[in-house]
């Protein structure tokens, strides 16, 4: 009997020992958990407001929305993800809110809000526009030296959201500004005390800023409202002053601005602002040189190691394509063609063709593409490309010629951008976009690679796009984009068509460091989505530096 129990104990011990030696070597799958969209009342949240790389979602609140009680109907997340907070309800977004998504791993996202409240402070005889310090709740305006500060007429005062703000004292009671005046305002559950100042100045008109580009100069001035205000200019060294036509001016109270166009590159101009008979001191600005787009006619091509490149040599090519990655599958995505646009003096154009890049019918859709930059590497069936080339000029538009065959969508990949839905059979969409910006290799040139290895962009080609990681996809609303413009195609353009893509600038002051230009026969090719029948032809691209006349 004792031996029986001893055997049972021994067997149990062995089983326990074996169990202790067994470990779970099956790794959990890595599932990137994302916020895909936010819907609710009193705000907007576009796809570009979801920063997947830094896991930040920004809501743009209406002026009258209560930032402490933002109504969110739904926060859409990756299927299967669990959230650390309810995905609907009322949120206090005066501070950034953390939302942790979890499944096999955890991903911390941040929800934040931006709210712009238009504020105005205008008194009779004011010079220029009032300035506001929102943090310290201060506002001040400039008035002429002869102004009697004991008897001031406030013409307009708005310190809070339109239609829901109460103010004490009233605008009619604000007459004496010998020191400063305090104003108490209330909206929602907020109470604020503002301080208003008037500052005397002997400057009656001022040229506050002049930003010189290549064939245009952006002028900004301030003077006395209810006077005739504007700008005068001339080429340095000449006698006659020219006046900017009044219809070219934008006037807002005592501030005025214009885009002075029709200028010559690399030329020094003398500039001044005026308000009735008063004139500002003369300011000089020199316009930039006009830089053409390298190989914009797509006349330069070569073939090295069986791969076609849009340049005289592979290493010297200004443009890149996906041909290097597709070559593994024996596919050519982008090639030269003698089917040039009407009237072209060149011999070649470029043809972009979306195709299945695979073997024996197994693979992924690869968009016909052409971009300023270079193809970097291939990882499995995924491509890594570099966008951008050095460029410090500020064109106002891109002009060129295009044809497009719009196929029906044959392939739909995963993880499309937030708000984008594509199904098989839909019309494909082609795109041409151009941007200038201040991207750096340190911020945009790092792509995670296998076994912890990293690919880093260069000073010349700073942006790294890794098709395995959608957080690296080019963001036209990114903080370092100075200007952007695009043209999309959702139907066939059977004959050559000339196009102009205006560049919309976020500022006239910042000088860009690089240019990005991308053509794709399938807009969502980065997500392996599009049609194997889509084709795009492009020819004779050029940068425009002067403002085009309105048709």
TrEMBL record:
InterPro entries: PCMD (IPR025112), Put_CMD_sf (IPR038653)
Name of the molecule in the record: PCMD domain-containing protein
Organism: Candidatus Tidjanibacter faecipullorum
Region named Disordered: 275-296
Lineage summary: Bacteria, Pseudomonadati, Bacteroidota, Bacteroidia, Bacteroidales
Signal peptide residues on this chain, from the entry's feature table: none
Family annotation (Pfam families): PCMD
Domain Putative carbohydrate metabolism: 314-544
Highest taxon of the lineage: Bacteria
Gene3D superfamilies, sorted: BT2081, beta-jelly-roll domain
């Amino acid at each position: 009997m004792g031996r029986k129990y001893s055997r049972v104990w021994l067997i149990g011990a062995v089983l326990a020992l074996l169990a202790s030696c067994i470990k779970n070597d099956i790794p959990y799958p890595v599932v990137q958990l994302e916020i895909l969209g936010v819907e609710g009342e009193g705000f907007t949240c576009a796809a570009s407001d979801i920063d997947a790389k830094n896991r930040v979602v920004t809501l743009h609140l209406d002026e009258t929305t209560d930032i402490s009680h933002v109504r969110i109907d739904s926060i859409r997340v990756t299927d299967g993800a669990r959230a650390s907070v309810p995905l609907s309800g009322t949120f206090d977004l005066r501070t950034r809110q953390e939302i942790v998504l979890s499944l096999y791993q955890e991903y911390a996202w941040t929800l934040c809000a931006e709210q712009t409240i238009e504020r105005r402070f205008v008194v009779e005889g004011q010079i220029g526009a009032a300035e506001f310090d929102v943090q310290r709740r201060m506002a001040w305006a400039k008035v002429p030296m002869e102004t009697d500060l004991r008897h001031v007429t406030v013409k307009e005062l708005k310190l809070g959201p339109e239609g829901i703000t109460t103010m004490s004292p009233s605008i009619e009671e604000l007459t004496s500004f010998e020191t400063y005046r305090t104003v108490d305002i209330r909206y929602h559950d907020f109470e604020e005390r503002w301080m208003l100042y008037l500052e005397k100045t002997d400057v009656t008109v001022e040229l506050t800023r002049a930003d010189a580009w290549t064939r245009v100069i952006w002028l900004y001035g301030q003077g006395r409202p209810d006077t005739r205000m504007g700008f005068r200019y001339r080429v340095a060294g000449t006698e006659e002053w020219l006046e900017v036509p009044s219809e070219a001016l934008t006037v807002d109270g005592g501030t005025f601005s214009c885009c002075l166009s029709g200028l010559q590159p690399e030329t020094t101009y003398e500039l001044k602002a005026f308000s009735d008979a008063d004139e500002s001191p003369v300011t000089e600005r020199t316009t930039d040189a006009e830089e053409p787009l390298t190989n914009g006619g797509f006349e330069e091509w070569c073939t090295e190691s069986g791969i076609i490149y849009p340049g005289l040599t592979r290493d010297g090519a200004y443009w890149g394509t996906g041909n290097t990655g597709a070559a593994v599958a024996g596919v050519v995505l982008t090639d030269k063609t003698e089917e040039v646009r009407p009237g072209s003096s060149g011999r070649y154009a470029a043809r972009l063709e979306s195709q299945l890049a695979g073997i024996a019918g197994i693979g992924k859709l690869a968009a016909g593409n052409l971009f300023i930059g270079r193809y970097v590497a291939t990882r499995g069936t995924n491509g890594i490309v570099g966008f951008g080339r050095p460029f410090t000029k500020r064109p106002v538009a891109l002009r060129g010629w295009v044809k497009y065959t719009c196929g029906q969508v044959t392939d739909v990949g995963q993880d499309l951008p937030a708000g984008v839905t594509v199904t098989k059979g839909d019309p494909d969409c082609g795109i041409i976009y151009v941007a200038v910006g201040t991207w750096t290799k340190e911020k945009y040139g790092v792509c995670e690679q296998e076994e912890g290895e990293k690919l880093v962009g260069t000073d010349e080609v700073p942006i790294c796009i890794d098709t395995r990681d959608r957080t690296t996809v080019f963001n036209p609303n990114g903080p370092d984009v100075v200007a952007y413009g695009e043209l999309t195609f959702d139907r066939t353009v059977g004959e050559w068509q000339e196009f102009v893509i205006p560049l919309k600038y976020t500022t006239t002051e910042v000088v860009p460091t690089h240019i990005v230009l991308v053509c794709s026969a399938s807009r969502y090719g980065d997500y392996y989505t599009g049609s194997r029948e889509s084709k795009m032809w492009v020819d004779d691209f050029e940068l425009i530096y002067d403002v085009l006349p309105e048709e």
